[in-house]
Write a structure and sequence with these properties.
Number of strands: 4
Largest sheet: 4 strands, parallel
Number of helices: 7
Strand order of the largest sheet: 1-2-3-4
Subcellular location: Cell membrane
GO molecular function: 4 iron, 4 sulfur cluster binding; iron ion binding; NADH dehydrogenase (quinone) (non-electrogenic) activity; NADH dehydrogenase (ubiquinone) activity; quinone binding
Protein name: NADH-quinone oxidoreductase subunit B
Helix content: 25-40%
CATH topology of the largest domain: Rossmann fold
Catalytic activity: a quinone + NADH + 5 H(+)(in) = a quinol + NAD(+) + 4 H(+)(out)
Shape: elongated
Domain NADH:ubiquinone oxidoreductase-like 20kDa subunit: 70-179
Length: 202
Amino acid sequence: MTDEKANNPFRVLGQAPAAPLVHRALESDAATAEDLEKGLLFTTVENMLGWAMNQARANAIWPLGFGLACCAIEMMAIVGPRFDVSRFGAEVFRASPRQADLMIVAGRVSIKMAPVLRQLYDQMPDPKWVISMGACASCGGVFNNYAILQGVDKIVPVDVYVPGCPPRPEALIHGMMKLQEKILASKPEIGPFPRKKKRVVA
């Protein structure tokens, strides 16, 4: 069984029987138990909710556009009709960090801009993700000097690095698809659910 099938909480064990099961006295108890398991769905409420939450999070990403240099032009191209990132549920670029869950850092980050970037990251609600787009955001690129931050991962945790100078829109879409895979493979924190207060009848 592959890892993807093993992590699916809605996995079906075997194929559903074509005809109703008929108990035969000659069969062993193990074979009967195996036949009964075919076609049954095994999961827990926690796994089911986690799977549903991951599906919702992965297919409705709201990016915060943080375009700083020439990579921002390529980032803007993904919302156009040619590349159409809305196929992945990520067409709603937000101007407010409080409404976004993905920060796309596109371009070089100067030392003076680093505290602003960190403040915007802190204002984003959890769960949140970061894509470092381009060589400048990932490692400083050709700007190896005192004024440019040598990698945005020094101030915020980065989930996906998209290489290139600048990367094409297809590369950014590929990075978003990799982020979706990462979200689907994660285990969301659920609960503890608050208990209902018992109603006391006087």
